[in-house]
Structures are given as C-alpha cells and as structure tokens.
Amino acid sequence: MPQKYLELQEQQIVQRLRRNTLAAGFCTLTGFTLLIPAFSVEGTKFDYQTFCFQPKIVYSTDHHYCTGSKIRRGIAWRVALEGANNQEFKDKVTLLKFLPAQNPHAGLYGLGSAAFFSAAFLLFSHGTEQLEANLDLVVGNKKALIQERSLEQMKHLSIQTLKTQQEEGFIKEAMNRDHGTELYELMSDGEKKLAAEEANQAKQLTDADFELKKATLNAQTAEQLEQEVKHRIEVNKLRKSSDVTESNQAQLELMLKEHEDSWLWTLAKGKMPIIIYGKQGAYKSYTAASLALLKSHFQRAKLYSISDPHAHQNKDTAWKELIPSEPDIKGSHENWEDYGESIDNAKERWSMRTLNDDPIISIWDELTTMGMEIPDKSIILMPKVISAPRKANENVICITHSLTNAGLGGVEGMSEAIKEGTIRLKLKANGFQQPLFKGELSGWTDNEGNDINDKPVTLPPWFRPDKLVQMIQREWGIGNRQQAIAKNDK
C-alpha cells in the first residue's frame, strides 16, 4: 500500500475536489434555472402605455381616432419621456390604458444567472489548479496501487502455473507407470531381461553425470574459497601496514567502495546535491551528518553552514560531531527570519564563488516546514540548489519529509529538474519511529554509467557520525580531527 501520509493527503485532495465539483455543479444548475424566466417569451418584461393620436378639438364626429389599429402601444417610460420633451406630441396624443409588466424581474434573473455561471467557472478553475499542483502525488499513489495489484496477480498466476505443472507431471508419471506395467506384462522373458539391463545402464549413466556435476561444483567452490582467502590476506596486509595513515585511509575508502556497489563512496566524493527524505525517526539528520563528515574528509571541504530551526536540539545529538568544525548555524529556536537570511547569504555566495575556491558544505534541514513559514524565500531555494552550487564548488545536503511540492519548500513545476539534478535518498522507519537503516536511492549512476532509480540500499553499522569520527582520527593518528586538518593544510 502507498505511504499512510501520502494516502491521507490524496484523500484530502479528493474531498476538496468533490466539494468544488458539487459547488460548481450547484452554481451551474442555478444559472440555467434563472435563464428560464430571464429569457421566457411569455409575459411582458416592461410596463406599457396605450395611446392614440387624437387632437384636443374634434370638429366632426365622423372621425374615429382612438379605435382599432389606430391605438398604439409603447414602453411607458419612453411615452412619458416623449410627452415631457415634445409639446406637439403631448397636444396630439391621448393616453389610454396603462399595462403593467407581467415579468418585471427578467433582467435581475439574467444578472443572477451570469453571477452563478461566473462562480461556477471560478470554482472549476480553482479545482483544476489544485489538481495540477498535486498531480504528481495522486499519480504516484495510483502507480503504487497498480504495481501492488500487478504483483498480486503475478503471484496468483505463478501459484496457478506451479499447481498446473505439478498436476500435469503427476498425471504423466501415473500414465507412464501404468503404460510401463502393461507393456512389461506383454514382454517375453528375454525382453524383460534386456529391458532390465538397459535400465541398469541408464541408471549408471545418470549416476556418473551426477558425480561429474558434483565434482565440477566442488572445484568451483574451492576456487571461490581460494579467492576469498587471497582477498582476506590482502586486507590483512593493509591493516598491518607500518604506515598507519595510508592503511587507515585505504581501509575507510575500501569499506565505502565495497558496500553495495560503492554508492556511499559516490555520495562521499561526488558534489551533486543530495536530498534525504523519509518519516520521522528514519535517521535522516544523522545520515546527513555522516555524509558531511565523509565529504569533509575526502574532499578536504569545510562545513560552512547548518540551517536548521531545531539546531538548538540537534547540536547535542545529530550535529554533535559537526559542531567542532564551527559551522555558521542559522534558524535555532525556530527563528525563521534567521533561516531566511541564510538563504539570502547562499544566493549571494553562489553568485560570487567559483570552482577555483576551496570546497565547502551546507546542510538545509526542515524544508517541509520552511515552505509554510517563509514561502517567499523557500520557493527560490530548490531551483538555486539545482543550478548554482556546482559552479560555486559547494556540496548541498537537504533534509525533508517528502518529495512533494510542499516537502520541497512549496516549489512547483520542478519535478523533472529535481530528478535530473539531485540524488535522492529515502530512509525508512518502523511504527515506533525507529530507524531501519535501509531505504531506496534514486538519481544515482553506477560504475557502468547506468542511471539507477529506487535502488534498495542499507546503512552499514559503521556508518554513524561517532564511529566515522573515530576512524578518521585513527587515520590521522591524532585525537582531534580539527588538528588533523590543520596539520594537513600545513
């Protein structure tokens, strides 16, 4: 099943879209309902006044001025306006009946209909924008469901196939046995003896083939064991070398390279931005600290800054081994204004530094909350992280809870750029928010140049900040890592 957090988000999106659809449908239906009285052909929409042209003084009774087709009808306010402005019209016209409008509110119905149609359009547009903003989340969840159902179907087909094959084999064996029994009964004594000899020879051939395969497998096993012994001897030689610095350095580098296709070595030596994400308790911050220590050691890079609203809590836990490097810590005690200044400083730093400058490292924690607290600054961080730090010779490590728009500081339309320009490490935790020290790696390229996504990975027991510091200190042969770096600089 998809992650509980993402599934809950999808349900909320569906509920909002359903409400928008119902509201838009109601407004549309109301608009069409108001159109009926607005454009109805039955009943008059204005007050009318009947009149005729009859002089005030009539000299003959033979003229009939106000009968039949001589009676006129006009809109009441237009007739009154003409009478007020035209004296001649007023003298010649005799006003007759006043006919009140039968449907006087038709215009208001039309305006109301237009208003409801506009509201329906706005609701529909808002719902469409919401769907587009969260389309990656919905599609991702649906993809997970489809894959899960496909796996269930494959499992069912595999079971059915195995069952059918076993039933077929059983029936064939039974039929062959019955056929052999009947055939044996029809044989003469000489034929039975000959058949027994052939069966014995076939068994001998089968036994000889089995022994040959067994001997071949034993030879291959012995060869593999011999290679493993040689490898262990070489490792022991490295460990027992008189040059402590060289042996320890080779040991740490060898451990990184030998672990799961050397993905840890790539992250330690590479400068592509890294995004670490996962549930709470998945060991995200400790992993970021471990990578910072390795980058500092193998790239001779200085830890420049840590932007973390919970730095006052993490300084004695996740960041404990990084504090001696004296990084610029921003955002402690949830000081988001201070965090925003760190983003401004990074923009200026990335615009000024070049590849000729010494390499540095920056860590950015709580990208999820950053999007809600400082949205005007958070939306520019991720686009800059993808495009700017490489040419400024800076290693960037970001920490968040998810790869959604909200989880990356509220940035939109960057999913493809993030896939192409970052390495994503998803870490897992159990229901007690305890790390499982395993996860999935995406955006990584193996030693053969192949792009790898969703690669299952594990964090080895020695990949912990305190243990890495001990190994690095042993490598330099002194008790303080900062003294070692200073010694190397001299």
What descriptors fit this protein?
490 residues; alpha/beta; 8-stranded mixed sheet; 16 helices
Folded structure, characterized:
The protein is α/β, with parallel strands linked by helices and 490 residues long. Helices cover 59% and strands 13% of the residues. Strands 6-5-7-8-4-9-10-13 form an eight-stranded mixed β-sheet, with helices on both faces. The protein starts with a helix and ends with a helix. The relative contact order is 0.08.
Short synopsis of the structure:
The protein is an alpha/beta fold and 490 residues long. It contains 16 helices and 13 strands. Strand 11 and strand 12 form a beta hairpin.
Major beta sheet summary: 8 strands, mixed
Strand content: 5-15%
Radius of gyration: 42 Å
Ranges where pLDDT stays below 50 over 5 or more residues in a row are 241-246, 478-490
Number of strands: 13
- Seen as an oligomer or otherwise, the chain set is single chain
Structural class: alpha/beta
The best one-word shape is flat
The spatial strand order of the largest sheet comes to: 6-5-7-8-4-9-10-13
Topology:
Blueprint: H1 4-38, E1 48-53, E2 72-75, H2 76-85, H3 87-92, E3 93-99, H4 106-133, H5 135-186, H6 189-239, H7 244-258, H8 263-269, E4 274-278, H9 284-298, E5 302-307, H10 311-314, E6 328-330, H11 336-352, E7 360-364, H12 367-373, H13 375-387, E8 394-400, H14 415-421, E9 423-429, E10 435-442, E11 444-445, E12 451-452, E13 455-458, H15 465-476, H16 481-489
Parallel strand pairs: 4-8, 4-9, 5-6, 5-7, 7-8
Antiparallel strand pairs: 1-2, 1-3, 9-10, 10-13, 11-12
